[in-house]
Design goal:
5 helices; Gyrase A, domain 2; 250 residues; 2 domains; alpha+beta
Length: 250
């Protein structure tokens, strides 16, 4: 069995929902080659949908001179060629899109279950998070694994998901001194966010567990396990289950 593509994922039903009209926004210049569209002040699903809607419509009908769109938690950066279009023209076009309701029909998001072995050698900061939150380690695990998390974007490292929806009960500051190496699959908390390190990289998040799943494989299509718009659900597993899932398939 290919554990990188089966035995861990399930999709929600494929009924459709309509995208709402984009929320009020603010546009700002980023030098003479980019425009930043501020579409909300909070990391939440409505802001995500507004960014996704505008990004999709610009991709479907790219204006002359547009080079690329880069989504973030609450903004969308639009890069353009100043020799082919002007900032004034781009602002006018984006403003019209924002004022026009998006009639696109979207499918329900994909639900991806991520097995996580919490604590011990897999999550050495779990006890610290519990102490900071005045919770026991099992209570931290229960809170963390009870929520459904929206993947707002992929960034920092290939396949790193920026997730929204973590309970403030387990919010904790970053480490004062970042680690130089964090094992791939490590699940961490920083502030009111949680995420998964796809590769061995430096990092300052508090590590509470680890998944045996590969979040980034260059040979896979697409190479990243998670995509913006997915819903992530963490499932606690034992060390033995971790080892079994981490073993190469026969």
């Amino acid at each position: 069995m290919d554990r990188s593509t089966s035995g861990w994922r399930r999709s929600s039903n494929m009924s459709s929902v309509s995208s709402p009209k984009l929320a009020a926004c603010r546009l700002a210049a980023l030098g003479d080659r980019a425009l930043v569209v501020h579409l909300g002040g909070r990391i939440d699903p409505p802001t995500f949908r507004a960014i996704r809607s505008l990004s999709r419509r610009l991709a479907d009908q790219p204006p002359a001179g547009m080079l690329e769109c880069v989504p973030a938690f609450t903004t969308l950066a639009i890069y353009y060629d100043p020799l082919r279009t002007s900032q004034t023209e781009l602002i006018s076009l984006v403003s019209k899109l924002i004022d026009t309701p998006d009639s696109t029909i979207e499918t329900q998001p994909r639900l991806v279950e991520i097995p996580v072995c919490y604590g011990g050698e897999y999550g050495s900061d779990l006890d610290f998070v519990g102490q900071h939150a005045s919770l026991t380690a099992p209570e931290v695990i229960e809170v963390h694994s009870a929520a459904d998390y929206l993947v707002h974007m992929i960034g920092f490292a290939p396949g790193f998901p920026y997730l929204g929806g973590m309970s403030s009960k387990i919010a904790v500051p970053r480490r004062a001194s970042p680690r130089l190496k964090i094992p791939p699959g490590s699940v961490g908390i920083a502030g009111d966010q949680t995420g998964i390190y796809p590769l061995e990289t430096p990092g300052g998040w508090q590590l509470i567990g680890r998944t045996p799943l590969a979040l980034f494989l260059p040979e896979r299509d697409p190479p990243t396990l998670l995509q913006a718009g997915d819903i992530v659900r963490f499932r606690p597993i034992t060390p033995e289950q971790f080892r079994q899932l981490a073993e190469p398939s026969a």
